[in-house]
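Why should sequence recovery work at all? Because a backbone constrains its sequence more than one might expect. Tight turns favour small or flexible residues, buried strands favour hydrophobic ones, and helices have their own preferences. The token representation captures these environments compactly. In the example below, the structure is given first.
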């Protein structure tokens, strides 16, 4: 997996945008996070934070070590979360679910993709 250093700015986004018509979305979401990093949008479940885009575990609140400053929690709808979502860059927003409805669609994409083989 190439790291972000191997992409020129915008290049990963361009590659992934071209793949949108043919490649499975869950795969593109993982590739995008690997290329440009996780967006500051998370899902929160039993104290664990998962990346809203690729579902990798990106932190937890169990020990209080990882505060949520600068991150948006899907479905939280507080001013801070809304501000983070409004401030997402194009790279961060691409294929990232930011509403409960989009998160549910992404879940269905994953189930479909994982059930393929
Ligand atoms: Zn991610
Ligand atoms: Zn919030």
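From this structural description, the recovered sequence reads:
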């Amino acid at each position: 997996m190439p790291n972000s250093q191997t992409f020129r700015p915008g290049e990963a986004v361009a590659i992934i945008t071209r793949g949108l018509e043919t490649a499975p979305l869950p795969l593109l979401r993982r590739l995008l996070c690997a290329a440009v990093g996780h967006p500051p949008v998370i899902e929160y479940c039993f104290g664990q934070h998962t990346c809203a885009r690729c579902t990798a575990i990106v932190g937890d609140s169990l020990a209080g070590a990882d505060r949520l400053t600068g991150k948006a929690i899907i479905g939280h709808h507080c001013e801070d979360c809304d501000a983070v979502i409004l401030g997402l860059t194009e790279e961060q927003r691409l294929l990232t679910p930011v509403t409960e409805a989009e998160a549910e669609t992404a879940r269905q994409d994953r189930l479909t993709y994982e059930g393929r083989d």
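A few observations help interpret the result. The radius of gyration is 14 Å.
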